[in-house]
Specification:
- Helix 2 (14-28) packs parallel to helix 3 (61-72) and helix 3 runs parallel beside helix 4.
- Strands 1-2 form a two-stranded parallel ribbon.
- It is globular and about 45 Å long.
- The protein is of the alpha+beta class.
- The longest helix has 16 residues, at 94-109.
- 41% of the residues lie in helices and 11% in strands.
- It has one domain (8-109).
Length: 116
């Protein structure tokens, strides 16, 4: 079976977000739980994130949080979250990156009715 993935540009569109949510809902019916692993290199470089390989034209933080929340609220519980590719490079916004990780973790792990 060929695996498919969503391109960054697709997740920036409402239709792409809806497609990702539908995918997550379908998958959640076939699994016991999610472990959400987020590579921070996927975030748009304009955020000056403290990451290993900043991505021009990457995801906005808002779109990333929305995608993670769609997975976490799709039916199967999220039992864990991990963020990768953090790198404190000179001039990068480390406090902003830490806040981004906190927002993504909250989207993955907070109960759906917690005001997210």
């Amino acid at each position: 079976m060929k695996r498919k993935r969503f391109a960054v540009a697709v997740l920036l569109l409402f239709a792409g977000q809806a497609a990702a949510a539908a995918w997550a809902a379908t998958v959640s019916g076939r699994i016991d739980a999610w472990y959400v692993a987020f590579d921070l290199d996927a975030l748009d470089a304009s955020g000056n994130w403290a990451v290993a390989m900043p991505e021009t034209d990457g995801l906005t933080l808002s779109a990333a949080v929305g995608a993670v929340r769609a997975i976490a609220t799709s039916g199967a519980p999220a039992i864990g979250f991990g963020a990768t590719a953090i790198m404190d490079r000179e001039g990068a916004d480390l406090p902003g990156t830490i806040e981004a990780v906190a927002l993504l973790a909250e989207a993955a792990l907070a109960p759906a009715d917690a005001g997210g």
